[in-house]
């Protein structure tokens, strides 16, 4: 792979990875609720799933989706329901408690956030449809390289969103402000879930 190809891929992935989406908003909300450290296990799950799904798409899932586009529609519906569930967890956290309990997202939550994110599947499919070399001998190397670059790029994006969410929460010290922040992030997640199906 040439340096021009590398920069073309990074230029393609960069704005997509750092824009608001289910993954970034989930980690921003979790970072605001429990701090950066509380998200590390989920972050690990998210990025193991990212790497594995990218490999699967690189090795042929994208061709299956091209032949059966309803698969992506099914993923979008299931993913949206899960994102609405996460949004509800943030909105209703601590409603009946004196102290707000931080919302902890687990390794499995991290994996499910990625696996149910149709935006991720679309980006991965576009990545391979646009940049996969025509020569068969270079395809394996490219798919592995693309999976590594995609995963690392997403990792940095998720960390920035998590730190940003935590930073906003630190500015808002009162219980009332933190509850409002949970409601805002939860509502944003639900709106993203709805937009995925429009």
Explain this structure to me?
With 198 residues, this protein is mainly α. It has one domain. It contains 8 helices and no strands. It starts with a helix and ends with a helix.
List the helices and strands and how they pair.
Elements: H1 3-18, H2 22-34, H3 40-67, H4 70-91, H5 107-115, H6 118-131, H7 136-171, H8 175-195
Question: Which short descriptors sum up this protein?
Answer:
198 residues; mainly alpha; 8 helices; 80% helix
| Share of helix, binned | over 70%
Shape: globular
Strand count = 0
Element pattern in H and E: HHHHHHHH
Largest sheet: none
Distance between the termini: 37 Å
Count every helix, treating DSSP H or I runs of 4 or more residues as helices: 8
- How many structural domains? 1
- Beta content comes to under 5%
Which structural class do you get from the secondary structure elements? mainly alpha
Chain-averaged pLDDT = 81
**Compute the gyration radius: what is it?**
18 Å
Q: Low-confidence parts lasting 5 or more residues at pLDDT below 50?
A: 95-99
């Amino acid at each position: 792979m040439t340096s021009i190809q590398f920069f073309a891929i990074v230029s393609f992935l960069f704005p997509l990875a750092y824009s608001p989406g289910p993954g970034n908003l989930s980690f921003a909300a979790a970072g605001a609720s429990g701090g950066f450290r509380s998200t590390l296990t989920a972050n690990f799950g998210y990025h193991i799933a990212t790497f594995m799904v990218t490999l699967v798409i690189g090795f042929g899932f994208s061709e299956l989706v091209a032949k059966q586009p309803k698969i992506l529609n099914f993923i979008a519906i299931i993913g949206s329901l899960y994102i609405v569930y996460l949004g509800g967890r943030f909105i209703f956290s601590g409603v009946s408690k004196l102290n707000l309990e931080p919302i902890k997202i687990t390794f499995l939550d991290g994996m499910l956030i990625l696996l149910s994110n149709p935006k991720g599947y679309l980006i991965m499919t576009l990545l391979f449809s646009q940049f996969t070399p025509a020569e068969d001998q270079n395809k394996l190397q490219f798919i592995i390289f693309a999976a590594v670059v995609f995963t690392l790029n997403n990792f940095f994006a998720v960390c920035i969103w998590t730190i940003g969410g935590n930073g906003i929460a630190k500015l808002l010290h009162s219980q009332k402000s933190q509850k409002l922040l949970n409601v805002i992030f939860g509502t944003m997640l639900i709106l993203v879930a709805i937009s995925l199906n429009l």
